[in-house]
């Protein structure tokens, strides 16, 4: 589902309970992220992961990899092009291979991508029969968090390949807390914002405005040219 455009008029987007948002390292040698020596080849694809790893682990050789989770795990297992991979933990769980993760990366250390661990269900507001079928699956907190994240992404004119990371969660009081970052692809620039509020759309817009005031539009424009 495109994250950089609103739903068509009359369509609504609902979300079931969110999975773990954290990324994981899979290293067939059993190493954690701080263990590999200089030059170790770590495969990943998302620009926000590459930027964060460039900053935190500059001694690693980051190798772009594509394909589904099974394909990426196979690349690490054979060792022909990469020695380890970083990918979404939720993706491993969906294929029943979460035990292969050698480290679950803290979300503060490796901020996840917007929408991480989320599934979406779309239907027309007027389709009461379908809405009734989906109702038992809907998680209100996950839906509110998704609205905040998608509002941020649209306000930044971002897309699935933009170097943007962020995570929204609903606290016990019902307020939405959103933390977000924008990166230069090489990690040379890191912009951050955090907002809390009762209305997810307002939280997303406010966080985006904070990032824009720091130069996010210019950073993202430059990333599109690389």
Instruction: Count structural domains.
Output: 2
Model regions low in confidence, pLDDT < 50 over at least 5 residues: none
Query: Fraction of residues in helices?
Result: 25-40%
| Proportion of residues in β-strands | 15-25%
> What is the N-to-C succession of helices and strands?
EEEHEHEHEEHHEEEHH
Spatial shape: globular
Strand order of the largest sheet: 4-3-5-2-6
**Assembly context of the chains:** single chain
* Structural classification: alpha+beta
Please report the distance between the alpha carbons of the first and last residues: 25 Å
CATH architectural designation of the largest domain: 2-Layer Sandwich
How would you sum up this structure, described in words?
By secondary structure, the protein is an alpha+beta fold. The radius of gyration is 18 Å and the shape is globular. The chain has two domains: 11-19 and 121-224, 2-Layer Sandwich (Double Stranded RNA Binding Domain), CATH 3.30.160; 23-104, Periplasmic binding protein-like II (D-Maltodextrin-Binding Protein, domain 2, 3-Layer(aba) Sandwich), CATH 3.40.190. The protein is built from seven helices and ten strands. The protein is 32% helix and 22% strand. Strands 4-3-5-2-6 form a five-stranded mixed sheet, sandwiched between helices. It has a three-stranded antiparallel sheet with strand order 8-9-10. Strands 1-7 form a two-stranded antiparallel ribbon.
């Amino acid at each position: 589902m495109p994250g950089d455009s609103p739903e068509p008029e009359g369509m609504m987007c609902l979300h079931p309970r969110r999975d773990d948002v954290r990324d994981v390292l899979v290293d067939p040698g059993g190493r954690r992220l701080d263990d590999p020596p200089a030059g170790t080849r770590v495969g990943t694809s998302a620009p926000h992961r590459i930027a964060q790893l460039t900053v935190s682990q500059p001694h690693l050789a980051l190798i772009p990899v594509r394909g589904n989770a099974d394909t990426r795990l196979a690349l690490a297992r054979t060792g022909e092009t990469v020695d380890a991979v970083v990918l979404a933990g939720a993706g491993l769980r969906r294929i029943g291979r979460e035990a292969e993760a050698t480290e679950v990366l803290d979300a503060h250390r490796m901020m996840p991508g917007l929408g991480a661990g989320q599934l979406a269900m779309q239907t027309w507001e007027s389709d009461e029969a379908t809405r009734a079928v989906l109702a038992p699956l809907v998680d209100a907190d996950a839906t509110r968090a998704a609205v905040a994240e998608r509002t941020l992404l649209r306000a930044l004119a971002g897309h699935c390949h933009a170097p943007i990371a962020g995570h929204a969660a609903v606290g016990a009081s019902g307020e939405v807390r959103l933390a977000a970052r924008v990166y230069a692809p090489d990690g040379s620039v890191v912009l951050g914002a955090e907002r809390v509020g009762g209305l997810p759309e307002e939280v997303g817009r406010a966080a985006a405005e904070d990032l824009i005031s720091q130069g996010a539009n210019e950073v993202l424009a430059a990333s599109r040219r690389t």
